[in-house]
Amino acid sequence: MISLKQFSLLFWKRFSENKLNQVAGALTYSTMLAMVPLVMVIFLFSLLFLYSMK
User: Fold this and answer.
1) Which domain holds residue 48?
2) Residue 36: alpha-carbon gap to chain centroid
3) Rounded Cα–Cα distance for residues 26 and 18 (Å)
4) Enclosing H/E stretch for 39
5) Could you list the residue ranges that cross the membrane (predicted)?
6) Strand ranges (DSSP E) for 1-54?
7) How far is CA 10 from the centre of its chain?
């Protein structure tokens, strides 16, 4: 079993080697970009539903 210090050092080494910060940023950007059309479709269907009830 490894200690907390060893785990922290290993984590930081792997984090810096694999550029996880850049990958996480790209994933966040892609997710936010994909959510815009989804929100617009939900908004459109909610408006259509509300106007059809009048």
Assistant:
1) 4-52
2) 13
3) 14
4) helix 20-52
5) 26-51
6) none
7) 25
Secondary structure of residue 28 in the 3-state scheme = helix
DSSP reduced 3-state for 19: coil
Whether pTM > 0.85 for this model: the answer is no
**Cβ 21 vs Cβ 15: under 8 Å:** yes
Domain count, the chain: 1
| Backbone CA torsion sign across 24, 25, 26, 30 | positive
Rounded Cα distance, 6 and 12, in Å: 10
Distances in whole angstroms, Cα of residue 36 to Cα of each of 42, 44, 45? 10, 12, 14
